[in-house]
Hints:
Blueprint: H1 2-30, E1 34-40, E2 50-52, E3 56-59, E4 64-68, E5 73-77, E6 80-83, H2 92-98, E7 111-114, E8 119-122, E9 130-131, E10 136-140, E11 147-149, E12 157-163, E13 170-174, E14 180-182, E15 195-199, E16 208-214, H3 222-232, H4 235-245
Parallel strand pairs: 9-11, 10-16
Antiparallel strand pairs: 1-2, 1-4, 3-6, 4-5, 7-8, 11-14, 12-13, 12-15, 15-16
Helix pairs in contact: 3-4
Amino acid sequence: MVLSTFTTRILGAVAAGALLCGLGAGTSAAVAQTAVVVKSSAKAFPVGSKVDDEDTITLASGDSVTVLTKKGTRTMKGPGTFRVGDTPKSNRARFANLTRKRAASKAGTGAVRNAATDIDRPLSPNLYYVDVARSGTVCLYDMEAVRLWRPYNEGIATYKVMAEGSDTPTLVTFDDGESVAPLDPALLSVAQGPSYIIAGPDEEAEPATITFAALRQEYRDANALAAALVENGCMVQLELMGDKLGG
Length: 247
C-alpha cells in the first residue's frame, strides 16, 4: 500500500511537470516575433521602428513598408491592410552575402536611385564597409579591420582620414578600378566614441564625419542585426539592409 501511494505521487509529479512544460512551450510559441522596418514611405511606420509578426498595418495608396522578420523580408504596398508576418520572402542568401567577413573589392554593387538627383548611386556590396561619402555611425565587429568603400572606382583617388580635431591625416589610396581600400591600424586605430573625418580628393565635396560602434555579438538573423543597428544608431547600414534585402 505504501509503495502504491509513493508511485502514485511520483506519477502525479511527472504528469504535473509535463503539463507545466507543455504550458511553457505553448506560451513561448505564442510570443510574437519582432520585425524591424528597414524601408518606408509611410509616416506612421518610420525606418527603425519595430512591429510584431501578428500586427496588422494599414497603408494608403502609394505607401510602402519593408520589414525584416525572423523568417525573411516582407514588403507591403498600399492601399490595403496587411499582417506583418504573412508570407515573408527568404533573405538568407542575400543576408549572408551582404554580411560576409571577406568581400571582393570588385564585387557587384547594385544601385539605388537618389530621389533628389534622380541618379542611380551604387550600393556597397558589404554591410561593414565604411562609405567614404556618407556621414553617420558605423557598426563593426573589428575596429582593427576597417575597410573604406567608394561608390565609383574610376581612376586613382586618395582620401584623408583623421580623428576630429587632429591636424595629421592618414592617407588611404584607391587604385584605378578598386572600390575597397583598408585603413592601416598601425597608422590610425579607430575606437568607439571619437569622430573621424574622411575627406576626398574633391575639395568642393563635403567631408564625411564617422563615428564607430562595436557589435558585441554575431547576429545570424537579419532582423536581429537590424535591431542592433537601430540600437546603436547605425542608420546608414540599416538603410543599406533595406535596399539590399528589400528586393
